[in-house]
């Protein structure tokens, strides 16, 4: 029987359990996108995860969404990750970098550049900037000839990630960021080969994944998807057809895993499970919803055919989450107020469980 605490072979990695730390932006990098000593400590504290997926990391300056997020587009940024990957490995863990190009969810006040997207349609909502939240700006629609360069940015960042000691990368294809904008039918109004039909809307995702596989190998490449999700105002039509077509292309590329969020009805997601022959990570709740991933939702999804389960907030607040799940110790609540404040408070200060003497 598949249990959360049993081992799993993911490509060449032997995971000691099926608990994945979900990617979480924590805005604790330096202003120029360098990883810090605190970040090394934070991830090393959580190295008992079967796999850690880091916070979103920008593969280019124009792809940076929030101030204070780390990058992998300069040599200095790549070098800054070494202490992080070494600390996690020293504690017996494994980690993938999440490559996140924000596309239209960005701001000139953060990057000095006009954000880009599939079409000149702004995101719904306010984006973070160094001076506080501001309305999402109108992005510049990418010219057809520019699109391969953005697909290639994931591959270049992946190469830097692996050279900096990461075990692999996860393309952020979810939550309304660039890949998800291309998948959508209201952020992507293109009439060239990158929009319109299902085949057009999946093309950017497939090209970014193919370029990354070329750069670092399929065993080191995963992708995160949020089928039917509506983050930042994206809307997707033909959700089952869109994701079935995408998974068929990704299966041809033999990606290490697909990481899906429970952003649409369970029967749609279980059909995607059947359509995807490889390793499947499920984040079993609606992101930013009222309910957190927990043991019950994890077991439910393992029963539905997930191979691995990702936990976000529970892992943020419980560095020893795996041990707590193993022993049934209580899961500490998360402090939302310190999600994005910077500094070590609410970052390095969550204790491990103290058993009563
Ligand atoms: C503080 C915070 C930051 C997040 N940042 C990211 C991110 O960078 N990339 C991503 O794919 N998801 C991000 N998420 C979503 C989580 O990965 C996860 O899907 C969500 O928290 C739901 O799972 P949970 O109930 O286990 O927390 C973030 C969530 C939180 C709470």
Largest sheet: 8 strands, parallel, barrel
Proportion of strand residues: 15-25%
Q: Give the SSE string.
A: EEEHEHHEHEEEEHEHHEHEHEHEHH
Q: What's the overall average pLDDT, rounded?
A: 97
Terminal-residue CA separation: 34 Å
Could you list the spans in which at least 5 consecutive residues all have pLDDT below 50?
A: none
The ligands found in this model are: flavin mononucleotide
The number of distinct β-strands equals: 14
Radius of gyration over all CA atoms, rounded:
19 Å
Q: Structural class of the helix and strand makeup? A: alpha/beta
Tell me the number of helical segments per DSSP (H or I, 4 or more residues long): 12
Q: What is the secondary structure topology, with strand pairs?
A:
Elements: E1 8-10, E2 13-15, E3 19-21, H1 37-45, E4 51-57, H2 75-80, H3 82-90, E5 95-99, H4 108-111, E6 116-117, E7 126-127, E8 134-135, E9 140-141, H5 147-163, E10 168-173, H6 178-183, H7 198-216, E11 221-225, H8 239-253, E12 257-261, H9 266-275, E13 279-283, H10 295-303, E14 308-311, H11 313-317, H12 321-327
This protein binds flavin mononucleotide.
């Amino acid at each position: 029987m598949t249990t959360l605490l049993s081992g799993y072979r993911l490509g060449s990695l032997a995971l000691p359990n099926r608990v994945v730390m979900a990617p979480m932006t924590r805005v604790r990098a330096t202003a120029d996108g360098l990883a810090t000593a605190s970040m090394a400590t934070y991830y090393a504290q959580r190295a008992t995860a079967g796999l850690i997926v880091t916070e979103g990391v920008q593969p280019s300056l124009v792809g940076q969404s929030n101030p204070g997020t780390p990058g992998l587009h300069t040599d200095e940024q790549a070098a800054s990750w070494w202490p992080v990957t070494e600390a996690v490995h020293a504690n017996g863990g494994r980690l993938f970098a999440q490559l996140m190009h924000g596309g239209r969810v960005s701001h000139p006040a953060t990057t000095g550049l006009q954000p880009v997207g599939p079409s000149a349609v702004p995101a719904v909502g306010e984006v973070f900037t160094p001076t506080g939240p501001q309305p999402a700006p109108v992005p510049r629609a990418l010219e057809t000839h520019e699109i391969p360069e953005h697909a290639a940015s994931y591959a270049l960042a992946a190469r830097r990630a692996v050279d900096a000691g990461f075990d692999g990368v996860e393309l952020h294809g979810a939550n309304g960021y660039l890949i998800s904008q291309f998948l959508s039918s209201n952020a992507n109004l293109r009439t060239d080969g990158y929009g319109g039909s299902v085949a057009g809307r999946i093309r950017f995702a497939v090209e970014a994944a193919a370029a990354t596989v070329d750069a670092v190998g399929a065993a080191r490449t995963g992708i995160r998807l949020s089928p039917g999700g509506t983050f930042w105002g994206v809307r997707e039509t033909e959700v089952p057809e869109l994701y079935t077509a995408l998974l068929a292309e990704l299966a041809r590329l033999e990606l290490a895993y697909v990481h899906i969020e429970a952003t649409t009805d369970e029967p749609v997601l279980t059909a995607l499970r059947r359509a995807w022959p490889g390793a499947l990570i499920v984040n079993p709740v609606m992101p930013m919803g009222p309910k957190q991933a927990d043991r019950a939702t994890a077991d439910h999804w393992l029963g539905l055919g997930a191979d691995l389960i990702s936990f976000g907030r529970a892992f943020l607040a419980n560095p020893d989450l795996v041990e707590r799940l193993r022993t049934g110790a209580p899961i500490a609540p998360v402090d939302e107020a310190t999600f994005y404040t910077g500094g070590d408070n609410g970052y390095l200060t969550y204790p491990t469980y103290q058993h009563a003497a």
